[in-house]
């Protein structure tokens, strides 16, 4: 399309160059040409707006007096070619936007299916869960705090306890949302719903995951906004990982963040 516009401009050099309206229109055409080359996608409203403006420009050029529209037939042909090519380019851009939107929706649906399957598995395993002093402490703690972090050694029951407590809140009408990243709390957080999020191994599995620590720190304020409407967050962390990051992450200090509290698994000495 850029070549087509350049062809029109070369023809216009033989016209009366004092006619600024023709030059302005051609410059506008070139502007739109450059624009659609640079952008990756376009919405329906912008698509219709650009196509209408370009159509109006072509119509004005070809409806000008004959002495200002040298070789009208050629200009009409080039104008039609510009419109057709612009239409094709814009349509492709709009199609790409639709495809990307569908891909995002499919991804969200896949994640929701994964969450549902995880919850079904939790329900199955919870049938054999035995209430403990720690699970009672977590239930009491999460009642009065937005977030609870369960600290313990591998195999101490951190994950099972967090899932058990979350299922209790699910029965009370909370939407249960298993998550793997802090961003998912922001993505799935709904201010119109009471939700309980469960985040396993928040700071790393076998060692400190500095990327996770950094993300928690950066997203802390936004996470607290999501949890304002009586929503809850239960997190688990290995004792060794917790101690290694104790001075790095404000999520672990009840002195710094009053909305957070720690619950230590039984027989885990600190």
Structure description:
With 270 residues, the protein is of the alpha/beta class. It has 2 domains: 2-99, no CATH class; 129-264, 3-Layer(aba) Sandwich (Rossmann fold), CATH 3.40.50.300. It is built from 9 helices and 5 strands. A 5-stranded parallel beta sheet has the order 2-3-4-1-5, with helices on both faces. α7 links the parallel β2 and β3. Mean pLDDT is 70; it is low at 1-20, 64-79 and 252-260. Residues 92-119 form a coiled coil. InterPro entries: nSTAND3, P-loop_NTPase. Keywords: Coiled coil. It comes from Mytilus galloprovincialis (Mediterranean mussel).
How do you describe this structure in short?
This is Novel STAND NTPase 3 domain-containing protein. Pfam families: nSTAND3. This protein is α/β, with parallel strands linked by helices and 270 residues long.
In CATH, the homologous superfamily of the largest domain goes by the name P-loop containing nucleotide triphosphate hydrolases
Number of helices: 9
Number of domains: 2
Reported by name, the CATH topology of the largest domain is: Rossmann fold
Please provide the count of β strands.
5
CATH class of the largest domain: Alpha Beta
Q: Give the N-to-C terminal Cα separation.
A: 70 Å
CATH-defined architecture of the largest domain: 3-Layer(aba) Sandwich
